[in-house]
Design a protein that fits this description.
This protein is of the alpha+beta class and 185 residues long. It has 2 domains: 7-74, SH3 type barrels (Roll); 85-182, GMP Synthetase, Chain A, domain 3 (2-Layer Sandwich), CATH 3.30.300.130. It is 21% helix and 30% strand. It has helices at residues 64-74, 85-92, 139-151, 176-182; strands at 7-9, 14-19, 24-27, 32-39, 42-47, 50-55, 110-117, 123-129, 156-163. A 6-stranded antiparallel sheet has the order 1-4-5-6-2-3. It has a 3-stranded mixed sheet with strand order 7-8-9. The longest helix has 13 residues, at 139-151. The two termini are 27 Å apart.
Length: 185
């Protein structure tokens, strides 16, 4: 079931993040929105006032059908898999820019991934990432999503995600697969 283009009326008030400013606000029960995208455990809603990101923790406000589908889309079990660098990359591929239907890895936003083995058979993961625009207020939200996805890996004890600006991101950093999704080929 594709949620994109679905019109919904909020059943409950919920917290949302305005895109691209990053301002946290409340959307009120009874208001109507159109789903722009639902990927990686969040949904982007739009109305005449703009775009809003609602996390899975507030999905019940969107109605049972939408909440169930959003939970299904967010299901990626990273807990039981043996730890590897590829597992961390897979976790990062579950994080999406709320305006662009492409994950942050394929957008070319991940600049560095460092893994440190700890004495207790756990791992510390450090990520350096950038954003598509320096003025994007969604940076902390996207970085927090990335950190949470990495920390969902059972063998990870700590994850840090740092936003950096050098080198500056350009569209040339988008993967070939993402270029096809975005119609850039």
């Amino acid at each position: 079931m594709s949620l994109q283009g679905t019109t919904i009326t909020l059943e409950n008030s919920c917290k949302a993040t305005r895109i691209p400013s990053g301002e946290v606000l409340q959307l009120n029960a009874g208001e109507s929105y159109t789903v722009s995208q639902a990927l990686g455990g969040s949904v982007t809603l739009r109305d005449s006032g703009g775009l809003y990101r609602v996390g899975i923790e507030d999905a019940d406000a969107l109605g049972q059908e939408i909440a169930t589908e959003l939970a299904r889309l967010a299901e990626v079990s990273l807990e039981d898999a043996p730890f590897s660098e590829e597992l961390v990359w897979d976790a990062l591929r579950q994080c999406f820019d709320p305006e662009i239907p492409v994950n942050i890895v394929d957008l070319g936003l991940i600049y560095d991934l460092a893994i440190e083995s700890l004495d207790n058979s756990k791992f510390k993961v450090g990520v350096k990432m950038t954003l598509t625009a320096t003025g994007c207020g969604m940076g902390p939200t996207i970085a927090s999503d990335a950190q949470a996805k990495i920390q969902s890996i059972e063998a990870v004890e700590d994850a840090q995600v740092e936003i950096v600006w050098d080198p500056q991101w350009t569209p040339h950093m988008i993967s070939d697969e993402a270029r096809k999704i975005l119609g850039l080929d």
